[in-house]
Amino acid sequence: MLQALILPKLNLEILSSVCKSKQYRIIVCHDLSNLEAISCVERGFSAFERTSKMLCFMLPLIVLLIALLITLSFILIIILLIVFKAFFLSTQRIFKSLYPRKRMNIPITFLGTGQAIPTPRRNHTSILLQYKDENILIDCGEGTQRQIRKAKLNPCSITKLLITHWHGDHILGIPGLLQTLALSGYNKQLEVYGPRGTLFHMNKIMNMFVFQGAIKYKVIEVEGKFFENSDFALEALPMTHGAPCLAYSFIEKAKTRINKEKLEKLKIKGKIIAQLAQGKDILWNNKKIKAEDLTYSQPEKKISIILDTSLNKNMEKIAENADLLICESTYTKKDEDASGFKYHLTAEQAAETAKKAKVKKLILTHISQRYEFKEKFILAEARKIFKNSEVVEDLSKVEV
Ligand SMILES: [Zn+2]
């Protein structure tokens, strides 16, 4: 409670000393006759003091309350996110169970895209095609196993090795890769396919680097359709090169797929579904159900790989109607005579083959070092004839 001493103005000095000793406030009042005003000032001080005290007490409480609100908001947001994620995942699961699975894309990684002499940007040739449990390596030039690591792939996942021919830039990586597989406890049987002479060369490698018995493998010299299971087939046709050489095609088979949504509507369950998948009509609850009403056809998918060759008829044949043609394009037409390249293709020849074979997309690889940073000339030449052409770089990835 504020106490007030009311003194004439002249005694201010005395008042000051009294106030200091008793901790009064000094109120200078010019009109002492107006006691009402003094009283107001006194009340004002009291109110000010009360407000200050209240504020001192309330402020930490307000800060605490705000902090609590912020914390609660964060917790609420986290709970909402968890609930939303759980809802989203369960919805996805429901949708997956109701609708047929989307067709799987086939990833292809270009581990090396250079020609005989590698450059800092282009390693020796190697391509990895992944399909379900299969990891098919097409050629294995020097440094391929390091490129596999750079692409964050596992060399032990390789199941098949397809060799186009036995020139160094396509096979010098095989001994190193085999050593890594042997040291990494490779537990599959590596299937090696290649042209005539592959058995002889593989045996030499196995003996030279003392790999015999280190890993399981089998070597088959092939031509035509050489592998087939229920999902895909592999084909090879001879090319024209300085050594026996093959071009390959990977063909995912056309399939009859079940429309799961319709299946669930009719509540059809059990082994009888397999008959629908085979295109057979079924009898369900004494009702004849046509297979064609509950199924749809998934077309064939084809990827063809032509490396190291001069122009020949088999190119068009192996690439016919492919979804993707991967083709060597060592040089451009302008350099054809001066280059000294033998048994190789120009961008123009690769593009003409793509056009004649009616492929959907053309990817050019096996680029000569003379086009380092000048790949645009190769691309421009190809696009004049076949618009959907690309030149790939090392570690590029495409999906078909
Ligand atoms: Zn080559």
Low-confidence segments: 95-100
What is the string of SSEs from the N terminus onward? HHEEEHEHHEHEEEEEHHEEHEEHEHEHEE
Helix content: 25-40%
Q: How many helices does DSSP assign?
A: 12
CATH superfamily assignment of the largest domain? Ribonuclease Z/Hydroxyacylglutathione hydrolase-like
Write up what this structure looks like.
By secondary structure, the protein is an alpha/beta fold. The chain has 3 domains: 9-98; 107-254 and 299-399, Ribonuclease Z/Hydroxyacylglutathione hydrolase-like (Metallo-beta-lactamase, Chain A); 255-298, no CATH class. Helix content is 38%, strand content 22%. It is built from 12 helices and 18 strands. The protein has a 7-stranded mixed beta sheet. Strands 7-8-9-14-15-16-17 form a 7-stranded mixed beta sheet. The protein has a two-stranded antiparallel sheet with strand order 10-13. Helix 11 packs parallel to helix 12. The protein is extended and about 115 Å long. Bound molecules: zinc ion. Residues 115-116, 125, 167, 169-170, 308, 366 line the site of zinc ion (ZN).
Summarize this entry quickly.
By secondary structure, the chain is α/β, with parallel strands linked by helices.
Based on the model shown, name its key terms.
alpha/beta, Metallo-beta-lactamase, Chain A, 12 helices, binds zinc ion, seven-stranded mixed β-sheet, 400 residues
Topology:
Elements: H1 12-22, H2 35-98, E1 107-112, E2 126-131, E3 134-138, H3 144-150, E4 160-162, H4 168-171, H5 174-183, E5 189-194, H6 198-208, E6 216-221, E7 224-228, E8 232-238, E9 246-252, E10 255-258, H7 260-265, H8 272-277, E11 282-284, E12 287-289, H9 291-294, E13 295-298, E14 301-306, H10 313-319, E15 324-328, H11 347-356, E16 362-365, H12 375-385, E17 389-391, E18 397-399
Helix pairs in contact: 11-12
The structure holds zinc ion.
